[in-house]
Design a protein that fits this description.
4 helices, 110 residues
């Protein structure tokens, strides 16, 4: 009887540990769009200061940042972000990152 209680106790401890680990891991992979946007904004500012972006490219990227911010605010208006809204915002951020990379290496000719 004692050995059976030990097994049950150890199984419960293992299940509790796994549940806590699962909850912690899901929080680590949550999307924080505002942090991503802030990081991207810092990269844009730094590249503009280092003359890697022209003024027109800088203006286009900043305009795109504002559009993304508005999309986030619109999605959070009801305090619930659907997977479709998350996907759209994420794709906008990825598109902006790719555009920044292109602008840094390939100058636009006016």
């Amino acid at each position: 009887m004692k050995q059976n209680d030990r097994k049950t106790s150890s199984i419960r401890k293992l299940a509790a540990t796994l549940a806590v680990a699962f909850l912690c891991s899901t929080g680590a992979f949550a999307q924080n769009f505002k942090a991503d946007l802030k990081k991207l904004d810092g990269q844009i500012e730094a590249d503009y200061k280092n003359k890697k972006l022209s003024e027109n490219e800088y203006r286009k990227l900043k305009n795109e940042q504002e559009i993304i911010k508005l999309a986030i605010e619109k999605a959070m208006a009801d305090d619930m972000m659907t997977p479709d809204e998350k996907n759209k915002i994420h794709s906008k951020i990825i598109r902006s990152k790719k555009r920044l990379g292109k602008y840094k290496t390939n100058r636009e000719i006016y």
